[in-house]
TrEMBL record:
The lineage of its organism: Bacteria, Bacillati, Actinomycetota, Actinomycetes, Kitasatosporales. It comes from the Bacteria. The keyword NAD does not apply. This is Peptidase C60. Residues 37-54 have a biased composition (Low complexity). It comes from Streptomyces ambofaciens.
Amino acid sequence: MRRVGDTAIAAVTAVALGTGALLLVGGGDTGSPPQPSAAQARGGAGQAGRAPATPALPPSPPDRVRIPAIGVDAPLTGLGLTPTGSLDVPPAERKNLAGWYEAGTTPGEKGTAIVAGHVDNAEGPAVFFRLGALEKGGTIEVDRRDGGVAVFTVDAVEVYAAEDFPDEKVYGAALRPELRVITCGGGYSRGTGYQGNVVVFAHLTGSR
């Protein structure tokens, strides 16, 4: 089991997100989603031990996520765990809907907050189709239910094969407010769907 905030997520979460059966199947004839280049990766085990760049915000559920560089402006729904302990996903038919893990850290408070969404569905591209095109230094904004906006700066964008998914790096606890945005990625097979996941690593750099 891996812990996100105060709640454990089974290690099979990465496999479930990467099978294509949960986050996405199909894709139509719109072409493949962009994948991050090696230049967008970062070395080492991440920056979870470093001091926060800006003070953490009090807990507040999020309502919306915006990523201007790739045209994302989507409502957020709460996600729980499946009976097997893996992260649930938003309804596939609602392609402009993302979800956040509501039993864990809320975006902006100290710790690792998790947002996930589909890369496509049977009708074509979905909310995070262009997630792999995001670059270091990009901005992610999260509208919070308390009326504030948490602003995150992208530290890295990486793609992992399902069998090599680094659970601790992605889901592990952080000493500053951090955000992970996850969708399917990597190679694609009609038989098994996407073979891995694209993960964006970001940290809180402002609020308003």
